[in-house]
Batch of 3 targets.
Target 1
Amino acid sequence: MPRSSALSRVTCLWVAFLSLIIMPPAYAEAEQSEGKLMIHNFDPETGKRIIPNERCLTCHGDEKQKTDVRDDGTPVKIFVHQKQIEASVHGELRCNDCHTTIERVPHRKAPHVVVGCIECHKETWEKYKDDPDGKHKRLKVVNDQVGSYMQSIHAQPSKQDQASTNATCYDCHEAHNVGELGSIQRKEKRLKNPEVCGRCHEEQLADYRTSNHGKAVLEKGDSDSAVCSDCHTTHAIDKPETDKAKLAITKNCGDCHKEAQRTYFDSYHGQVHRLGYTNTAKCHDCHGSHKIQGEDDPTSEIHANNRLENCRVCHEEANENFLTFWPHGDADDRANYPGLWIFKVFMQILIFSVMAFFWVHVVLWLYREAMDHFQGKSFAEDLDHPDVVYFRRFPVVWRWIHGLFAISTMTLILTGTTLLFSHTGWAKAVVAFLGGTEMEGIIHRTAAVFWLGIFISHLLIAISNIWRKRATFKWFGSTSMLPNMKDARDLRDMFKWFLGRGERPQFSQWTYWQKFDYWAPFWGAAVIGFSGILLFAPEKTALFLPGWMFNIATLIHAEEALLAAIFLNSVHFFNVHFRPERFPMSTTIFTGVIPIEEFKHDHHVEYERLVANGELDDYLVRRPSRRADLASSFITTVLIMSGLALLTLVLIGLMTTPS
């Protein structure tokens, strides 16, 4: 072998040997310099392979190949816009932070794509919730929305494929283009919302396209008009047939239509709805749901030609008079509803004037009796030597009538004010306790029948008594309940006494305030009773009265009931029970008798008349038994506590009424 040939072979062997020693470290160094582009680095915490986004986008970012074909021949979209990812809230994440099942690229076979949004958001929030910089504070809201989603219809198993849910996060959210609040992506997403929902709800989308809302969004690009998520909410979506969904949709209408919602809540329909029940008309019952049109559109459900049929969905016997009802009648809108405004002003003047006068009367009376008590001038029962002789004030029939009338009145106040103050928590609790608004309505109407029946019975008895005594009865005599000139003088002298400018007047059988307490229910029975009858059966009422009478009847029924509730449980209670001479209560209305000395003090003129005529002995009776006294005290205490509780609830309702 030539010497030169042998030398070249040896040289080649040495070069090869040195290459084996030198090249691996050099290659490794180059590999480190290209670190983020290499795909066989591993996360030291999770042990998972780190795949740079650039590596994924080599295929998935190729605009020339936006789709691929699965093994079964079905096409699949694989293109992802790099700039959208970088601009999204997930722009700093790696692809396989979400696509956790992807372990290597290129894929050896079509990957099984699994994305777990929920666990990732929960874990990230737990990790960063205590960070002082607040960078991840939005995640708390996201996790709250996740909780709502998990209770929604979308999170439930699909009926067609129970291995899948009805809708995943990325079915609704554009997975690679999730924008921050106020971002361009969010605005774009809002306009796309109907199309996204329409992928599953095709029929609803078709109806929505024809509506005022749909035309504004899809044709004009008006992002202020309502989209699906405005009405159905974003995450707490339920079946539209459920009460939860109906309540949410009606509430959401008010986000845009605030004035319409305010007047709706003032109506009976809205009051029931605000209590949390759906058995009365809601926004979409009258206006439609996905095909909403203006009232001038012939296809609109509230168009003049269609409105009656719309009403008949609930009121089967509704006639033409129903069309004059004001669904959104506003008693504060003098220009559009002058009649309603006049009635409200009248009722409010009545309420304020009556309550202002009698509360001043109460305060002055309390002051004067307290001063007389401290000075030893007031009447006080001698408890060490109680009267054994009593004066009979009320026969048994009047005591029963008063007791039943008081119970039915309190029942009416409780069941009626739950509607009037449906915005309060106590009203919702009361209605739930009673068994819902339908049962509450039955109780209210039953109590109303008893109330009117008791009132009419009393009236018949009074007329019968007058007829039997017609030969001697004096219409304006001392025993008559009709106001007379002495009552006017007594009222004048009472205010003089309040102010320390005269003596306390002497009264006959009935005082001026007792006569007012007696005659006030006549006005109340007429106003509350007549308006209540109109509302009791609206279809029958509409046979002879226009529909706007429902609006007026509802207003005066509520206002007069409010006056009665406040007056009876404050002024009447003070006059009878709470003034210092009677505190803590008077049981006369249930025992029917009063100590003779107390009668002499309170009704001195009548006492002197009876003595002069020799009639006093006809009214004198023994002191009630211990059992009768305890029973009367118990009944009176229960009614007083119930009345004070009702007064408290009414005042809470008034003070918290939304403006």
Target 2
Amino acid sequence: MGATLLFWGWQTGFWIWAVPMALVLEASRYLPYRWDWTPRDFYRLSDFSALLLMGMVAFRFIAGTESMARWLPIGLFPLLCGQCYSNVGGVDRGALFYTARKKEKEGRFRRRRTMDVSYLYLACVIIAASAANQRTPAFYAGMTVLVGWALGYRRPPARRWPFLLVFVPVAFIGFGASIGLHNLQVWLETDVIQWMTDRQQETRNPFRSMTAIGEIGELKLHDRILLRVKPIGAFRAGQLLHEASFNRYRNGLWIAGQARFEPLSPAGSRNRGTWNLEKPPSERGFVSEITMKLRDGKGVLSLPLGCYQIRSLPAKKLERNPYGAFRVSAFSPFVSYRARYHPSVRLQAEPNDNDLDLPTSEREVVMAQLKARNWRGGSPKEAVEFVRSFFRSGFTYSLKQEPPRKGLTPLAHFLQVSHSGHCEFFATATVLMLRGAGIPARYATGYAVSEYSRLEKAFVVRSRHAHAWALAYLDGSWVPVDTTPSIWLEAEQEQTGVLTPVVDLFRWAGNRFDIWRHHQRFGGGSRGWLLLLALSGGIVLLWRVLRKRASRKQQTRTVSETVDEATHPVSPFTAVQESLIDAGYTKNRWEPPGEWIARLSRSGLGPDLADDLQFVVRQHYRVCFHPKGLSDDELQQMKIQCRSVQESLAGIQQKTKG
């Protein structure tokens, strides 16, 4: 067990705990001293371990620390330590199972029942070591040696070699299987999960965006609330929140070429959370407070167009790429920040060759549309207005798509035949037509802020509010060009379920809980309230314990006074008990006299002797616990009966010696 604890300390880095714990357990092999633990003592050890584990889980939940699975050996250590230093060699089952504890307290077990918890503890230690997630061959090798050692230790020496001949090949096969499972996990995490995430648009990928262009049937969107936006001051409904931009298009996939992220430096302390993105404009900007939940504390921020400063964002790291995407690594999975913005601020880098690129598969149809509408060139602003007017005439918004005609790409079918599609069709076609007109353009993704919640007193942004639009480079800055018909928000609002308001109520409650849990976590007041709450609970608990002890002392005093007033004599059963022990009838320390006599009666005492003993025990209980005790005649009869029992026991003892 000591080697297993050292292995756990090596994997998790908890040497300061592992070494003393291993020494304490291994010392039990050499120290001759043992405690005479009663079942009640093991119950207390078990309760202490349970409280320790509950405290660790509460600390993990409130403080948001790393997984507490690696701390399991500490929580269960008192129970194993009690087993190693007891004279029982195990732990009472009542310490592990409440039903068994209840039966033991009621005296329904004829003998004491214990079980060895060392193997259970060994399994918990290995699980805790695996929670460190080292993923190295050394971990598997160490775990294999420890498991083989534990399983082979209990086998007779003659059977250990056959066991090893079977165990070693199985271990090598398991190692190969673990590598295969790890590779499968990596594939699922990198490809399948990313593909599903891009499809559902719940988390943006700043490097690529897989659109729903080409999908057949109705596009289903989710009602899940992703963001909450609380405007401070003036605000225009329908405002766009930008997450990422892309400049290369291939078969329904937008890619951000050369989108390397560069770290930003905070304006002050990271815990204060002030980050300057651009130089503030001369005019006064606008402010919106945005709350969102990140996966594992990492993600891409949603920011209003023209954001130049972020406040109240305690983050470990904030990075930006040339296309206006901001990637954050926060201290907490729940973040709330204030974004200052102004339309005159532009965050994206100057255009490059990719911003004028027309894919070969779409070039012909784009140029044909420009020629059919008699585009003969003009200024950049005229080109933007020409594209806007193009999509205002005859194009409609729809979430349902039909199969494209043979020989046409989905985008060509949209431009030439159906003239109906969702925002990804409009944004992609707008970008390509602007490029065909000679205007650098990019594809942008984010969300539209339009649904106000009176309950939350803020705008809520759902998964179905995800939006795409074009960015055109005009007069030295990137200007949003959204050609999707404004009816798209109403069309998606129709997908709202009947139970959405009820579900939103639970979502609001969960959001308020997250705010309470993470609010001002670094330097805020929530910890003070938690400390005050814990202190109040501790005072109440201490008062109840002291009150209960005072009550017990009063009851004890009352009983002792009653007994003293009655002046009961010492019970004659004491001499009978000594005679029974001398005759070889052992008594367990935890066994009451009544249960002891009942057990002896079942084990083969003569019927006359058993009846006499049961009578004496009943009288003994009256002497000890009845307020009035026994009368003089009853006490004299009990003494006579006790002498008779002692004589019978003396005769049995002589026959045994003879």
Target 3
Amino acid sequence: MKLIVAAYFLTLAGLAVFGTHRYLLLYLYRKNRRRRNAPPAGRFAVWPRVTVQLPLYDEMYVAKRLIDAACGLDYPKDRLEVQVLDDSDDETRGVVDDAVDRWRGKGFNVRAVRRLSREGFKAGALAYGLERASGEFVAVFDADFVPPPDFLKKTVPYFTDASIGMVQTRWTHLNENYSLATRLQALYLDGHFVIEHAARCWSGRFFNFNGTAGVWRRQAIDDAGGWQHDTITEDLDLSYRAQLAGWKFHYLLDVETPAEVPALLSGFRTQQFRWTKGSIETALKLLPRIWRAALPLRVKLEATVHLTGNLAYLLVAAPLSTLRPVGHDPRAYGVAVHRLARSGDLRRRVGFDFRLLPGEPATGRKADRQDPSAHPGAHGPRHRHGREQYARGDRSPVGPPQRVRAYAQAPPRRTARPRGRHALPHAPRPRTRRRIRRRPLFPAADSVCHALRGLGVAALSDPLLRGLRVSRHRDGLADGAFPYRAVAARRARLMRVAVVIPALDEAESIGLVLDDIPKDRVERVVVADNGSRDATADIARAHGAEVVLETHRGYGAACLAGLAHLKADPPDAVLFLDADRSDYPEEASLLLDKIAEGYDLVIGSRARRAEPGALLPQARFGNRLATFLIRLFWGTRFTDLGPFRAVTWNTLERIAMADRDFGWTVEMQLKAARLKLRCAEVDVRYRKRHGDKSKVTGTLAGTVKAGVKILYVIFRHALAA
């Protein structure tokens, strides 16, 4: 017992030390806040050479944005070098190569640097790039950062002080208001960057480079021993080694570099695990060296508390582990929680079934007397037989089978009289237990969000639900694998989308179609005029569209002309849309959200939501026949060959579309099926076309030609395979 008391006291003492340290940092911040706007010591007569390093690994959706921001820095072009340290093994490589080629064509010194292996991960990539860098100073930006154009001109002048080895800037948050989770993370990071960094820097104590949004003097990296990957926080490790080598660091609180915080709690958990483990590894590696160095005692103490600060979590957990559940029964705690969550009033207001989280004992019982299912004799006339069983002394459960279940080996419990108008004088309460399913954490979080919505706080539950719920691919990706819905939503907003609209004599409807396209999701609109004899092209230009002329008649030829126009500056995804206003352009977000989730091709299926008369019988029959054959030959299920579809640019390059006529849509789908690409369908509305009848299914000749061509394309590819 004495040992337990002593351990408990020491634990509380350790927590008191870490808590007092937080107050000390706040005091140092307020005491030294006048140093906030200290100007640089001087100016460079000639801007020094700077290398910007961009470490990437499978960041397809943000790679282009990062490269554009790095090449858009307001710095002399001949003094700037951009290294894209690309360790990716997915479509990111193509995105990087396209962006690099585009900026090199504009005269920028930018190149993709790739290794044969990912040894050392980020630290290895940075060291590999540094060996090939030409800059005297090195700026580092992670994939989810967007450096402002004046970043280098605000940070590089501080290196006129020859003792400065690194300049760190403050992180800000692009998606702070996305959900409750992102707002809490932003608050947490602001405390670190506003209070902790500033207090340590301004009071002359050691602080760290945060891995990104900072500039290094190359000599400082070399003097510290270079990037090392024996810890998973290479930035913290290098920071302390450089300061032990005598270099000073400077922190710019007023220079902001926007970035994105993890939209999912799973991403936040991974990030915190890395930071926590890395700080302890760095402490084990460097604390002996720090205490042997000729440093002031205040610097040594601050470094010790900084590197071991995550031990506070263990100190918090230690006293909790000494607590025993109610009644000294390990199962009682789970029972008490289950009883509270199963209370009739709470369930009626919340409208969800409680599930125990992983690790909680599945021993809950139906103890709520307000719950009719807990009283087999109190179900009213429909369950009158329950009273007869009670009278016979039958203790088996009765009532709705989905609500009442009997379990063997139920623990003994005190019987009580059922209450209510159906209660019998001496009827013993049956000994029943309800099945409690163990579920993983994220579905339980869904239940919490539904509870919040039931209590009338949907404003809190909806963002939290978006941030916690995990979506699965239909093609079998495991739980936790890409993509998450919240990440997909973020990527959807960042995608560059272009719309291609093949048009032939659609002057009556083209303007309406262009007005309905969601401008917040689409960057460019290309109208491929297939030789119109009316004012289709002029109306399209008047509505802000780019018009491309294709004199060769054919739906596929017009689409190919639109894609050729986009090839000079390719988007991330292309949305195909008819010009007759039979589709609903405002539903484009449904398709683009699927693309952001990781699908290569998304078809807007008209099979279920077409209005009467919009999809003619011959069109329905042709769709069913063609999709049946695709499923028969290649195993991919479609329900429609609808022209309303979204596809990634990389997919278009892989499938190499060639048909210039009626076989365009089916060629795209069967090639995607043959290559085993990730395909999906989204039910969309479909209305009668605006204007005259359809040029294909509206005439007998068009129907026959289209049907023959579609079947020809399917069987030709089937025989070729």
